[in-house]
Structures are given as structure tokens and as C-alpha cells.
Amino acid sequence: MSDPPVTHDRPTALRDAARVRAANLQQLLPYVADLELEVDRLRRHHRLVHQEVRGALDHIRDLCTYTAPPDGALTPLAEVARAAARLAETLRELQDPPGYHPSHDQVIAVAVRPLAEHVFRWQQRLQGAEGAALRLELETEHVEWFPARLRHILDNLLSNALKYRDPDKAESWVRLGLRETPQGYEFRVSDNGVGMPPEDRDRVLDLFYRAAPVREAGLGVGLAVVKLLVEQSGGSLDVGSGEGQGTTFVVVLPRYDVADFLV
Questions:
Q1: Spatial separation of the C-alpha atoms in residues 242 and 240, rounded to whole Å
Q2: pLDDT at res. 100
Q3: How far is CA 240 from the centre of its chain?
């Protein structure tokens, strides 16, 4: 006698397929986070180059229309030289140091102070925040971590702080604190900007959310992807803020042994 026909439980098969897709997506998330942050970095890079080159050329064009310099002003030729030198300095700063590209990302000893100052200057120009001040409170000058990932994290958090500075305050500042713990490193990025009401604070790290109206409305993924990248690296990202009182992001990153990543 032949075996009875096999019946397929369609709902069970669909659930199994959904679980497989979810597992595959979970494995892809670290790569998606790295890719999104690299695309964002390149987009900012392009914006800054376009902004600086256009500004320098416009300034040089205006200088070419001078008939005589005002009293005490530089001659047009000297002004052109200064504008060109500033543009060259900006383009030099946009070059990533060796080892800071994601394709070469491995654990090394990262000097935090020059990295933070470099990223801050870049964001100052990009956000038009030349008057903002960076305050560094570093209990240690070096961390052993992934340099490209750390640059991504600091770049997005410093950008966020400068973008939402409070124009009504006499001074805009961003404070970067760092302390070392037995388990890893705690970075604390604080500002005295516009801050966030509680309802925005609870959702600011959600994917595709950007607070409004004090923050420009639209689609944003930067902070959510930073959170994903940090968590996929074994760390955590938390935010505290009050409306009109600034915002503080706390990033806790696990410690890695450089020797485990040497190739």
C-alpha cells in the first residue's frame, strides 16, 4: 500500500521562511550600518568640498572687480593668495589619515584629541559654526579601538551638536568627555544647544526619525545608524536632553585587545 500524500502546512512554512529572512537580516546589520555611515561621510565630504570651492571662487571673482583696496586692507592679489591657501588647507584636512578608511578598519591605538579636533573643524565649516567652541575633558589621550568606526561616531555626534546649537545663547560649545573603565571607554558628548522635549528624546534614536519643529523636519538615519553600529560592536548609546538645556549623548564602547586584530 502506498504512503499517504504529504501535506504542507503553509502558515508554518511562511513562519520558517520569515525567521530565516530575519536571521539573515540580523547578520547583515553590521555591514548595513558601516555602509550607511560611509555613504553619509562621503556625502558630507562632497558638500564641504563644493561649499569651500564655491566660496573661494566667488571670493576670488569679487576680488577681481576691485579698483583699489580699502584703507588698511590687503591688496586683491594677497587676498586671492589667502583664499587659495585656506581652500588648500581645507582640502588637506579632508584627507583621511592612514588606517581611518573602513576597508582597513582594525583595532589600533587611536589618539583621541587630534581626531576630535580634526572632526570638529570639519563640522564647523560644514555647519557654518565658526564661533562654536570645543571643550575636551579627556582622562586618557588614547583608546584602542576601530579608528574608522570611532571617527563615524564622533563625526555624527559632533555634527548633531553643532547643527542644533542655540542662536540665542552668547556662546555655543560642545564638550567631549572621555573616561576609561575596566570594561572599555565612555565617551560623553554634551552641548548647550536647543535641546529636545521628552517626546523627541524618546524617539531620536529611532530609524527614520528626526525631531521637529525645533529640529528640521524630514527623514534622518544618522543617529539611529550610529546606535546600531555601537550596539553591533558590543557597546551602548544613550541620550539625555531638556528643551532649551542642550543634549548629552553617552557612548560606551567595549575594550578590545590590539594583539587580537593585528594582521
A1: 7
A2: 58
A3: 18
- In the β-sheet with 184-191, what is the strand arrangement from edge to edge? 133-138, 173-180, 184-191, 247-254, 236-241
Alpha-carbon gap, residue 160 to 176, rounded angstroms: 13
Give the total number of structural domains in the chain. Answer: 2
- Is the entire prediction scored with pTM above 0.70? no
Q: What was the pLDDT predicted at 216?
A: 43
* Residue 248: predicted pLDDT: 93
Q: Are residues 81 and 188 in the same domain?
A: no
101 alpha-carbon distance from chain centroid: 14
Q: What angle do CA 172, 236, 238 make, to 5 degrees?
A: 40
Cβ of 179: how many Cβ atoms within 10 Å? 12
Does any domain span residue 4? no
Ranges under pLDDT 50 in the chain? 207-220, 262-263
